[in-house]
Amino acid sequence: MTTPPSPSTPSQDELVELDRSTVTVARFADYASAQQAVDYLSDNGFPVQRTSIIGTDLRLVENVLGRLTVGRAAAAGALSGAWFGLFLGIVFTLFSDSSWLAVLLSSILIGALWGAIFGATAHAMTGGRRDFTSRSSLQAGQYAVQVDAEVADEARVLITRQNWRASDPSAG
Q1: 8-to-3, 12, 15, 93 alpha-carbon distances in Å
Q2: pLDDT tens-place string over residues 63-119
């Protein structure tokens, strides 16, 4: 009877890595301020590899850009199709004995035509359920700067110093 292989024992470094706890040392309303704080820590010799910026209170924001009509859908499709046609045209010119310019232009035109047809058809098939274009983004309500617990006091002192200098114009 053979005994199953024993699981490998984690090294001391792996155990330390698993036991790492973090502490929030500052909160900011925008990412730029959190990034500026970490940059200040770095400029003052703080081990920033032990730092994280964590966005919390996430929300999805969809900004409406405008009305989507069949014409706009066709134009967007034509543009996408033209890019695809350009790609195919370049590939075709590598293996064609014909005029490379004629092959390239005809590929772009055919791609744009099919793209416009597909774009208009796809929009028409929605039945007016989504007659607008938009851009979505994920945004955080606040940003927390977290550091390893062992260096939290040092980070707090530095961030407090940064905030004090920012609020005191005579601090230089």
Answers
A1: 15, 12, 13, 57
A2: 999 999 999 999 999 999 999 999 999 999 988 888 889 999 999 999 999 999 999
